[in-house]
Amino acid sequence: MKKLTVNDSCIGCGACIAVDSDHFDFNEEGQSQAISNDNLDSAELQNAISSCPVNAIKIVDGTDDKCDDCSDCHGACAK
Ligand code: SF4
Across all residues in the chain, what is the average pLDDT? Predict the structure, then answer.
């Protein structure tokens, strides 16, 4: 299963959340977090990925062992 992630390089600019609030929201640290793995082919998600100034957003293969165990890593395994 594909999984949407935001890694720790996120600077909290909010661009992805403004473009695609179905997939992203701020976490308690003021960084973006992925909130859904639905519709990963959507145009809004592609726009959100393109809008990120630090390329923090990745779609990873969730069959990876690290991702199977991951609950809230913000994409650490995708760095
Ligand atoms: S666009 Fe990138 S840097 Fe900005 S909040 Fe989203 S993930 Fe973080």
Answer: 86
Ligand 1, pocket-test mutation among 21, 31, 49, most atoms within 8 A of CB:
31
Domain boundaries, the chain: 2-63
User: With a threshold of 0.85, does the pTM exceed it?
Assistant: no
Q: Is the minimum distance from the CB of 78 to ligand 1 under 6 angstroms?
A: no
State in Å: Cα 66 to ligand 1 middle.
Answer: 23
Classify domain 2-63 at the CATH topology level: Alpha-Beta Plaits (3.30.70)
Q: Which of 2, 79, 11, 8 is nearest to 51 (CA)?
A: 11
